[in-house]
Specification:
This protein has twelve helices and six strands. The chain is of the alpha+beta class. Strand 4 and strand 5 form a beta hairpin. The protein starts with 15 loop residues before the first helix and ends with a helix.
Length: 291
């Protein structure tokens, strides 16, 4: 949620008495009063975030919850600016994980990306001890698939495919479920740590991974528990879904294109949910990534 542009004449700093009065009214049971006080606090800009933050630890549960909501508003605005700046300053081979954590913070500003990255490190360490890297490709992929989809329980969210949380990587890891792109990102993150040449393949209507070596190639459907596919299977999928086949449909996509696809998916979801502010937010991201 982007913050409003700063006023040419910023409001005068609040006195201690004014802050105390606002805090009292912030706990009012009347939702209309809360909205007025919330707007008044937000008008103060970033300084309000700083003095309000202490009250996110208040013993009053209502004050604690409402203070946190307003602080989160400011944090999401700051995250929004960081993500846009990142998109505008990076090329096609941007750092995909860094980009995705920045995106996640626009919705979940309090997450710890380093902790999630450490989880990926631990997944890769577990797999490194199990994989015979000289084995046939299907055996290597089979080891990864068993670990990710059976032991850890990652699975495609077919029951609620349009849930926005399927696209936020922190929620995908927390819930062990997501959409084809996000689950492929999990696969790619682990593969990168294992130094396996696995890339993302952005077909129309679906997203898969591909392991390609001089010994051969195999496509991996992370949404369907790592189901193995051949190039012929992918061509059949494209034709059956009403697309003519073009070689470009099975070409690896750059990290920037993967990020664009995540943003486009969320833009579509929020538009269907009639969430105008979120739809506008992702439209801005798409424009930034298109430059």
């Amino acid at each position: 949620m982007p913050l409003s542009a700063p006023s040419a004449n910023p409001p005068a700093a609040l006195t201690e008495g004014q802050r105390a009065a606002l805090l009292t009214l912030l706990t009012d049971e009347d939702a209309a009063v809360y909205q007025v006080i919330r707007a008044k606090i937000i008008e103060q800009g970033q300084p309000a975030r700083d003095w309000l933050r202490a009250h996110t630890l208040s013993s009053d549960p209502v004050l604690r919850r409402r203070a946190q909501e307003i602080v989160d508003y400011f944090e999401r605005g700051a995250a929004d600016n960081r993500f846009l700046a990142f998109c505008l300053s990076r090329g096609e081979d941007l750092d995909l994980e860094q980009a995705i954590w920045l995106l996640c913070q626009t919705q979940y500003p309090n997450i710890n990306p380093l902790a999630y990255s450490a989880l990926f490190d631990s997944y890769a360490a577990d797999l490194r001890a199990r994989i015979d890297f000289g084995a046939p490709l299907d055996r290597i992929i089979g080891t990864i698939n068993y670990y990710l989809f059976h032991e850890l329980g990652f699975t495609g969210n077919e029951q609620d495919y349009s849930d926005p949380d399927n696209s936020y990587l922190n929620r995908v890891i927390d819930r062990r479920t997501g959409n084809p792109v996000s689950l492929s990102v999990v696969y790619l993150a682990v593969a990168r740590r294992l130094r396996l040449p696995i890339t993302g393949i952005g077909m129309p209507g679906h997203f898969v991974c591909r392991l390609q070596t001089p010994r051969g190639e195999v496509y991996i459907d992370a949404f369907r528990k790592g189901k193995l596919m051949t190039k012929g299977d992918c061509i059949k999928f494209l034709i059956n879904s009403g697309n003519e086949f073009h070689d470009g449909f099975l070409a690896p996509v750059t990290p920037r294109r993967i990020l664009m696809r995540i943003c486009a998916n969320l833009h579509h979801i929020y538009s269907d949910l009639a969430l105008a502010e979120e739809t506008t937010r992702f439209q801005r991201y798409i424009v930034a990534l298109s430059k």
